Please model this.
Amino acid sequence: MLAVILPALAICWRLWSFQLHPAAHQEYKVRAESAKLRTLQPLRGTIRDRRGGVLAESRSGFDIHFVYSDLNPRHIVIEVVCEELARLGDFPSVTEMEAGLAETVDIEKLVSLLRQGIPFKPEWVPLAIWIPPAAAERIRLRLGPRRYFRDHFELRVMKDKPLEAQQAHFGLWFRPVEVFRMELTLRRLSQSIGRYDTEDLMERLQLSLQKIEAMVARDIQSDIRSGADALFTRKKEKNSRRIFYRRGHLLAPDISLDSVSRIEYNPDLFPGIRIVDSSRRIYPHGEVFGALTGHLRQLNNRDLKILEKSGRRLDRYPKVSSAEAFAVLRQGALRPNDVVGEGGLEEQYDLALRGEYGMRLQQVGKNGRGGKLLASLSSTRGKDIHTTIDSKLQELLYRQLWAECAHHGHAAASAAIMEIPSGAILASTAYPGYDPNRIRDANYHKEMNASLGSQTPDWLLDRPRSKALYPGSIFKIVTTIAALENGADWEGAVDPLRKYECLVGEQKPFSLRCASRYGHGHLDLYEAFEASCNNYFYYLAARHLDAGGFNQWARRLGCGDLTGIDLPAMGGAYDRGFLKKPEDVKGEKALCMYGIGQVQVQMTPLQALRMVGAVATGLKAAPRPWLVKKKAPDKIHTRNSRTGAIIQECMKRVVSSPHGTVHGKFGLEDFNFAAKTGTAQYKSNNPRYHSWLVGYGPLPNPSIAFVVVCEKSRLGGGDACSPIVRELMEYLAGTDPRFLAGQEGSFSSSRKTGDDR
Amino acid sequence: MKAGLFSNRMIRWHLAAISLGLCGIGILFVHSTMRLDGEAFPGKVAWSQIIKACIAFGGFIVVSRINYRFFERKSYTLYGLVLFGLCVLLGLKFLRGDPSASRWFRLALFDVQPSELMKLGLILCLARYLRYRQDQGGLKGLLMPCLLTVVPMGLVILQPDLGTALVLPCILLAMVFVAGAPWKYVIAVLALAALSIPAVGIFGDKIPLLKPYQLSRITGWLHQDEPSVRLREAYQLDQSKVAIGSGGLTGRGYGRGNQNVLGNLPARHTDFIFSVVGEEWGFLGAALLILLLTGLVLLCFSVAMGTEDPYGKLLAVGIGASFAVQSYQNIGMTLGLTPITGLPLPFVSYGGSSLVSSYAALALVARVATQRVRVLSPQELEPAPPLAPVPAAEHRRAKRLVTLWRD
Model:
């Protein structure tokens, strides 16, 4: 007996601790009552340029939702009729009956008559005939209470049959005008919206219905698994479907205010249609800022698992009973239907831009409705992000890049501008870019892939940050600095005035040739740099440098390392470029290639910009590029105090000297800046190159550094990039006259000839 | 035996009254959990349960009129038939290649659940086997009863139906204890069972017979108070506790329980019907239900104590133990005292098979109570001394008494 009474007492004790203990009872009561927690979605923050102009913002919009049970009430009738007829043998299914409906009535004729205000004849059309009286009675019992059935359907005795048949069978008749409510509504809707035609809307509706079926199947899955009987499962399935059919589902997103007005002015013409407020992310500049701003994407299963593990999945929260508890839980929390940033600033600053959810905790009445507000917390709008970008400069650069690629057939082109000495990025753009407004449209991807083809398959890449290319002759900046700094003291380093000879044809002992057709003759460092003589730099690399020295200075100037810009890193060689390890650079030939920026090294445009920025500061610091949060530059120490001045002089002569590779190109010598061109072979025996032009200005106190690169171009660095730099200089000169040549005193020294050296 | 209200004759009426009371509560709450909006009592589902209850009670009346000796003679046959049914069910499941639960034979008019019948079959078989044996004191004597239990237990686990499978060893334990097994064996088995639950929680994923959802139920029960577990593995249990806890002393009112009406509580018409009673009728309603169920079990055990026939005693003990385990396991799981196993509450939960087998079992107990079987003691078997001649009047009086006694 004890074995029976003791468990009963234990259960009673447990019941007491739940139901009669005041604290526990109160807690369970609150949890039972606060069943409805509604979350309030926050508005995403805006991304702005340096003047406050909008680069990305969320705007409120309108979506069209449909409630299927109001839009198409005939589905219930068809389902019941088919069910009752199916009990008696081989009768049509719901799909067949729907198809039969469409064949029975000419919808086009119906629409046109309605438009003209002419009544459709016949007013009643048969749907099903030869319905046995028992089935007809059951149909009447089940559907009779529904007003829709009573008003628009009729069970009639079949009068044209013999008496015995009359007593035996019925026909089900319907009124087309009301029964085809869904088709008529969708037609009117497509005319009101304009963007979608009727077939599109019907297709969207069918897709939504398929999603509803999937949700119903998920609902009953657990019951099937736990072995519930078929009757229960069928009932639950019907109940679940009925609930979903009474809810709103998305039909058409982002419709205009005009369309909304038309729909709301005549709501009777659009039964089952609801207008719902929604917000959209707009990128006003489109592809100009595509990769820089990034775009938004839906959360995927991996994201949801991570959120769940870290307890930040909002729909899986335990029940909260106060605003304070929710305030703690909502930090960084997301719902499964939310969007997050992907690529660019949207991803980097997603947490700040996202904002925080609010909530309303409402007491629930008997049918899940009504109830008093127990607690509320308003949502926190996302923070606005202010960047250092100059939109006008960015736009200008993009248009120029686009024009040059279209005119000269470059595969792609990138450009970036940095403020000196802070490192703030004023512009960073590339062609081809992508339009973040359309990035989620599959047709857009098909269009882009079709138009760009195999030429530029990586059009989604943020090229200034992530596209690593052979630098070519711009790497001679590193070679020069390394050679000047080599050795324990000045005697070991290269003498900038020492001359080497550049002959036409293959030059022994390196078995390499210069790009010059006639040979440059005897050159010192300044002349070799301004003319970009390969032979001279072969000597420098092979005679004055080793791989370790190259590597050391290349790293100091930003090669082979992340630039540190506040954008999400892509990983691998994408953002770091490539720098061969010293131990892997074997032999003189390899060193020579290193010296002219081929084979051993790859740089991204931003890395090149950093390198030039370091030169612009006189080799005192290598600025770190940034867009939102300022970064401190890396200090550089040179053994030789004149190294900075020498390399600056070299770069100045590229523009000012008549032998400079930039001089005479599109009148760039009219502007006051220093530069270096580069023409990198990226494939042997290929007539196309990566053409670079890097520089800074105005002299002698530069305020900006720039980089322009044209990929797979038929032209060299000076010819391919000069038009773009010309436009840039004209724009900059418009804001700062120092960019014009002759506006500063020290510039005249660059015009001295060799006699003065 | 006591006379009057608590006599053996009256016990069957007590049993019938308690079972009808439980059934009535069950029908009321099945209606509360399964009715559509605005549907009056009794709704469609409640009608279905009423019909099943009527059929089951009819079966109770019929079976209680049959001499239980008939079942005693057919015990092994019935056991074998039900075992065969289990094998056929499993065979069909593997032939179809269907991994989902397969617990019913779906016949034209009704469904039959062999595992429910197996409980009764096992009780009959064990009672027949153990009735006259004296060797339960040693392990050897317990081998056959264990085998008779383990085989159907394995078949039921493979369905899978862990809840019913766990009732069978409890029946075995109670019956062998009453048959004379020593205390130490019983305590050893209970201790092993208590240790096995946390062991399953730790090493459960290595046990091939356990399905993932069964394992998650055990881990959910073991960590039921952790916030993340409450949202996932222990969600059903958590909702059950909220339902019961919010009931208070008198409950929220019939048909007004939030957890019930809003559908927050899964399986509330079957496994978690006690939670709905606790929510809508409060502590008083829940205590009434526990009282009725405990009373039923105690009555079964008192019938066992009151009969001298070993078969009848074992039968009543087995059936009482089966009711006790099912009831306490079901109520315990709604309160978080035991892991969730999917055992229905006898007479109360929605479902026909459980109702029919419960009433059939109860009918056997009622028959044991009313059918007096006199077991002769050894002294009575010794030859009696010669009697003095009895006068005729005395002889006639004695004859009348014997006639009365035979009735």
Chain B touches chain A through 51 residues (CB under 8 Å).
